[in-house]
Amino acid sequence: MSDDRLSQTATGKAWVAQFSEGKRQYATRLLDAMLLVNEEQVATSIRSLLSQIAQIAEGQGHRVGLYTEREFDEKYAFDIQSVPDATGRLRQRAVGLKGPVAIKTVRGSARIGSEGSISSIISSVIETNRAIFSNHPGPDRIRSAKAPIRLLVIVTDFIGSGARICSMLDKFWNVPTVKSWVSGKRVSFAVVAAVGTQSGIDQVKRHRLSPAVHVDRIAPTIFTFSKKMKARWSDLIKSEGPEERGDDPFGYNGSGALVAFSYRIPNNTPLFLRVSRGRAKNRWRALYEGHAPEDLRAAFGLKTSARLIRISIRKCRRRAGSGFAAAGRTSCPSADSDSRQMAAGGELHRGRGNRLVGIGRHENPASRNDHGAARRARPAHQCWAEACPGRHVG
Description:
Helices cover 35% and strands 17% of the residues. The chain contains 13 helices and 13 strands. A five-stranded parallel beta sheet has the order 5-2-6-7-8. A two-stranded parallel ribbon has the order 1-9. It has a two-stranded antiparallel ribbon with strand order 3-4. The N and C termini lie far apart (54 Å). The model is unreliable at 333-394 (pLDDT under 50).
């Protein structure tokens, strides 16, 4: 039986080998305590939570606006114009059919962050339920007389410290029209995330917009383990790893999150997990940067390239049936190209309509306790209406 623990992979072993010999056992335990989530699981979690919201909104006859969580420099979420009221007095009014841009390249590079995959998930959800959901609507769509939008939802893969979500909520709060809507209980807010730390979730809930927060999986942090392990790991984080250069060794805002996605390691995790730094022999190498390497696929609950090739060949042979065997062929012409595409595409490939189609397993990823034993990430499904009593769309 294969051992899918992160510490037993070639990548994991190479990372642990960088620590001094006496501390490698604690580095190993830290790796095996991490919650590992692949891209298909992120998509499944988000779709499930949005489906719950849709059922509530449909029952109340209201629509829902969906926004991709991302950083943007503007002070306001919507465009604002000075418009005269009935008395001729100029007032600030939010205008426009479109809200914040869903995708924007990371500053200083052409790379698109995780908002790219989240935006794709939102688009696929809207395709299946246009009567309820609206994609990044602007003020004019929200206040529409025929189909008003009563709930604005920010969608993300991960809530770490909660700072970035709160910053985006601030952009909405800064708009005078939004303040008026919230005050008059015409619009409310919610946040949907596949994964979140408990401290980050609590931070978002305390925002002045009082958003309902829906999270599928709770990510562990070094602070959620026993005092003994917390002390060991804290010492490890402070004494080992790359040169800090002003960075918090515990991760952004000292989060100390123990979570990794198959396509990125969040900046809320300890620095030594995600940053490569230094020169020659003294260079520290991150566990991985960007997408997880091939040897981690099994740890993330994904089929390996070799297994995908075998599956593709079997499918091809079944399709060909007896004619394939009768022809005396020993290889399947379409299998090689199909398997190469799947292997190169990582855990997801693009399907019809540019929808993200997963090829991984559906079960929840396992994280580890202090002794490395597998444990399931506890679900945090929370009905929007139950989470915020009395805060119905309307």
